Amino acid sequence: MDKIIRLSDGSELKAGLVGHPGSPVIMLPVAKESVYGQEADHLRLWGVDPELGQHFIDGLSDTFQLLYFDYEGQRLQHPNPDNLTPESIVQDLLIIASEMNVEKFSYYGYSWLALVGLQLAIRTGRLESLFMGGFPPLEGPYQEMLIVTNQTYQQALTNQSFSADDEQSPINPEQVDWGNIQVKISTNQTKQFVTMYQSLMEFDDREIQHKLVIPRLAFAGEKDTIVYGENFGNVTVDIIGKLERNKSALEQFGWDIEILKGNDMDHTKAMQPATVLPLLKPWLIRNLQMNS
């Protein structure tokens, strides 16, 4: 079942519900639509599965119901520069669930969409479990990401004259000078993430841990440390360092923690379906299926 849903800012998003009737529902806001041809080849260069969303759906729908949509894509197409706050995002997710007649659900998000899952968990009683990837649930890098996103926004302001027609050929990631790469997306696209991280400056992720009583897992690749150059504030976003340092504390709080091993297991590799599904599906089965 597919449905067009109007979100809190008035924009419209396509969501789908598929899978095993009567089984627990998993919300997948990471379900990007498949791309093919040259665009797919470009994504593969970066280590990204061009059929990421479909592979998550195929991998889980034999056991669970999946409420799937591409929230990041929605916000890139329909930016919410002044109001992309945790409150508005959670409102959107609950609107989507309600419009699809889903009362209770689990949530899987990666990177900033994992951060969103933590915000969802403390704002609703409708969540049955939480699966976070690529963002630590304790000592999250909110300050670092505010610096990075603000620098990105400032670059977007400077580069407004850039035309997409100026760049005809895909970039090979091995040829990118990450210290001097230029931002070539719109100011509204970038500003909305400044708004989001700015709104989290007073958020204390240690103080909210006692509110989390559902099954929950956080994971990251062992090479998930992103070093940003001068253009992005000379910031290091050390996802794996924060997760490893707080592993014992998180386990005491009731989290399951997984470190994905491999010399190539960086932020991008650890989000691909081939990496996530072998961890996600058995964990969901253990934590949800017996209660269905």
Fold and architecture overview:
The chain has 292 residues and is of the alpha/beta class. It has one domain: 3-Layer(aba) Sandwich (Rossmann fold), CATH 3.40.50.1820. It has ten helices and ten strands. The chain has helices at residues 37-45, 52-60, 71-77, 86-99, 112-121, 142-158, 187-198, 239-245, 247-253, 273-288, and strands at residues 2-6, 12-19, 25-28, 65-68, 105-110, 127-133, 216-221, 225-227, 236-238, 256-260. The strands form two sheets. An eight-stranded mixed beta sheet has the order 1-2-4-3-5-6-7-10, sandwiched between helices. Strands 8-9 form a two-stranded antiparallel sheet. It starts with a strand and ends with a helix.
How far apart are the first and last residues' alpha carbons, in Å? 21 Å
CATH class: Alpha Beta
CATH topology: Rossmann fold
Strand content: 15-25%
Alpha plus pi helix count: 10
Helix content percent band: 25-40%
Domain count: the total is 1
- What's the arrangement of strands in the largest beta sheet? 1-2-4-3-5-6-7-10
Low-pLDDT residue spans: 163-169, 171-178
Structural class, please? alpha/beta
Helix-strand topology string: EEEHHEHHEHEHHEEEHHEH
CATH superfamily: Alpha/Beta hydrolase fold, catalytic domain
Radius of gyration: 19 Å
Tell me the total number of β-strands.
10
Q: Sheet bearing the most strands, described?
A: 8 strands, mixed
Morphology: globular
Mean pLDDT over all positions: 90
CATH architecture label: 3-Layer(aba) Sandwich
Protein name: Alpha/beta hydrolase
InterPro entries: AB_hydrolase_fold (IPR029058)
Organism: Paenibacillus borealis
